[in-house]
Amino acid sequence: MRLDKMLSDMQIGTRNEVKKYIKSGQISVNGNHRVAPELKVHPGEDTILFRGKEICYEAYEYYMFYKPKGCVTARNDNLHKTVMDYIDSKRKDLSPVGRLDRDTTGLLLVTNDGMLSHKLLSPAKHVEKTYEARIRGRVTKEDVLLFQEGLDIGDETPAKPAKLTVLKEGEESLVHVAVTEGRYHQIKRMFHAVGKEVLSLKRLSMGSLKLDSTLKPGEYRKLTKEELLCLKMPEDIEC
Ligand code: URA
């Protein structure tokens, strides 16, 4: 890849800034300070220094984002803030993995690793997603059984069995729901099918990845090495 692209991908500066750094000799490639922005470099093989400090290229970026209410799970939107408005990265190929409704909050993975996205979203892989939901009405043991059996939510096929756990029962209930699919408005439609309304919805986990409890809505951080390793693990191996 081009030297200037590699440096701007690594957040050294904008394309114009890195061109200036290159011109002024602040960048070296294998000890050579007289290099051109369009020089082809091989990350991992070439030693690239900025002001004497080595720049290690990362092909992929992985962010855990705590999606706030009102934010749209898309790259662009004319009316609303999108996930990409929150994440400060020069990478143009970052995308959210899966979708959350505009009023849903919680865990969203953002990456440019298409293989991992595919693995997490593929229906065949049955990656479990858990949600916390506030429900208008009393969620009953019958509801738990109906969720377990697989509800008819108006699609060609019923929803796959889901684990519903009631944490607080009352006029308003607090529940956890674990599903292995990602159908449009799935949780809202499942509760609708048992005559109840979702008042708020927050995603807590996706596969082995759990929302960091120290993040606040709108905040994000890079995944740790362990989190990434666990996510990439074959599904038949427990992390
Ligand atoms: N189910 C929903 O109804 N909405 C979401 O955002 C995610 C799952």
Overall spatial form: elongated
Secondary structure: number of strands = 12
- CATH homologous superfamily name of the largest domain? Pseudouridine synthase I, catalytic domain, N-terminal subdomain
Q: What Rg, in angstroms, do the CA atoms define?
A: 22 Å
CATH fold annotation of the largest domain: Alpha-Beta Plaits
The helix content is 10-25%
The CATH architecture category of the largest domain equals 2-Layer Sandwich
Low-confidence stretches: none
Enumerate the distinct ligands: uracil
Oligomer: single chain
Overall mean pLDDT score?
Answer: 95
The end-to-end span amounts to: 35 Å
Could you say which structural class the secondary elements and strand pairing correspond to? alpha+beta
In sequence order, what are the helices and strands, one letter per element? HHEEEEHEEHEHEEHEEEH
The total tally of domains equals 3
Our estimate of the beta-strand percent is 25-35%
CATH class of the largest domain: Alpha Beta
Biggest sheet overview: 9 strands, mixed
Q: Tally the helices.
A: 7
